[in-house]
Amino acid sequence: xxxxxxxxxALRDLLGDWRNEAPAxxxxxxxxTLLLLDGRxxxxxxxxxxxxxxxxxxxxxxxxxxxxxxxREAGYASSLQGSGTTxxxxxxxxxxxxxxDAPISFTHASLPATRLLTGVLDDGLIDxxxxxxGSLGYDGVGQPGLRAAVADWYGRRGxxxxxxxxxxxxxxxxxxxxxxxxxxxxxxxxxxxxPSYPNxxxxxxxxxxxxxxxxxxxxxxWDLDTLEATFRRSAPxxxxxxxxxxxxxxxxxxxxxxxxxxxxxxGAGTTVLADEATAELDIDRGIRHPPLGALAGRHGADxxxxxxxxxxxxxxxxxxxxxxxxxxxxxxxxxxxxxDLGVPIFEQLVAARLLPKSDEVAEExxxxxxxxxxxxxxxxxxxxxxxxxxxxxxxxxAAWVNLGAPVSSQLALAARARGLxxxxxxxxxxxxxxxxxxxxxxxADPVALRxxxxxxxxxxxxxxxxxxGELDYAGTVx
Length: 478
Ligand SMILES: Cc1ncc(COP(=O)(O)O)c(C=O)c1O
What we know:
The protein has helices spanning 8-15, 24-37, 50-57, 61-73, 116-120, 123-131, 144-156, 171-183, 198-206, 224-234, 255-268, 326-334, 345-354, 358-383, 408-417, 446-465, 468-474; strands spanning 77-79, 85-87, 104-105, 166-170, 189-194, 210-217, 221-222, 238-241, 271-275, 303-308, 319-323, 398-402, 420-421, 437-441. It is globular. It folds into 3 domains: 8-87, Orthogonal Bundle (Arc Repressor Mutant, subunit A); 104-113 and 360-474, Aspartate Aminotransferase, domain 1 (Alpha-Beta Complex), CATH 3.90.1150.10; 116-359, Type I PLP-dependent aspartate aminotransferase-like (Major domain) (Aspartate Aminotransferase, domain 2, 3-Layer(aba) Sandwich), CATH 3.40.640. It is of the alpha/beta class. The strands form 4 sheets. It has an 8-stranded mixed beta sheet with strand order 4-11-10-9-8-5-6-7, with helices on both faces. Helix 9 (198-206) links the parallel strand 5 and strand 6. The chain binds pyridoxal-5'-phosphate (PLP). Pyridoxal-5'-phosphate binds at residues 109, 171-173, 197, 242, 247, 275, 277-278, 308, 310, 315, 320.
């Protein structure tokens, strides 16, 4: 997410290839709107002065002034005499669906609650909840029962764990942020995959990380040669990695990838922040990898694990955790007071009852994700022949689909106008790349998934037409 004041060059990089067949002021305003709506620019950010942006984009100042006027008129910016133009979100506008609009949302890759959830909401749970009423009811580390259940879960997966190593958090998003804050100082270099989970980029930037990335692709996975060279050269403080069913590519590291990655991290003195929130979402990978840290000892790498009940049990519980060495776990817990004082007890009691059933939950998820994958694949193959659905997608929540043309932001804007929310590909990168990609959530409700893809197919011919490359080729645009 961009900071409060955006420089002209930074905005130019964020804008990417923003021109379309509309007048320039309109195309520019529309692209800024999209950046604002999908979180790449935050509300309240000060835009560059008209003259500076005009110079950076090689436009006339009148064009930039007209674009800013258009933003103001639509409520996406405001200007105060002498203090420039500041972005704003008109009431109710964001990536969240507005109540009553009933749009289809492809922006979240999440499943509804497991069927097993109802089964644990019994009198025993209420009695247990009541038994806590005489206590304070919250603390920085989490309920002993849930910490023990999480520690057991790691043990069953091949990484013996003491409950002392577990800190319960508000979803794994909070876990990423708390771990990042404990491990990273302002200005530290931090490695991440590109593309990756955008809210993690936001957390890492928030603690002052300078992000460096190397690629992971749908077809080839992690580019470990480049990664090893990057680690040797840059010695990042932290490496944030999603080893299983990576968001958004869906790829998983092979055993060999894991070995090379851990060796590179150990060699560079880099602490690995392994986000395993999606690790249980296997459709037909056919191999269950232990948590990354189970292999780390051989290489001497430090691995801090991030986990979550959101993807398996339910995102609505907001239960996640960090697994770290006891001393670091204590430091993480001690440092959280500035942002939160702990996690609601009821949800922790629920999660503690469901974690032991994780194999049963995984079977349910497997069936749901398999159905979503087939619905998405067949709808795309039938209706969007320009697109390439991943040849191999054996788990995870989403498909990283190649659109065949650099029009993802145009697509996101056009889709929004038709009631479909979808994050543009560049939201998953750090430097405006990925205009050729969109993330299609296979976790979405199958009927909404099919309908959303049908909607895209309806607008696709007009979106496809505006690619500059094609217009250049046709000779209609200089
Ligand atoms: C890779 C990854 N990590 C973390 C999260 C955060 O999820 P939660 O805070 O619900 O656990 C997500 C959510 O989409 C994710 O995809």
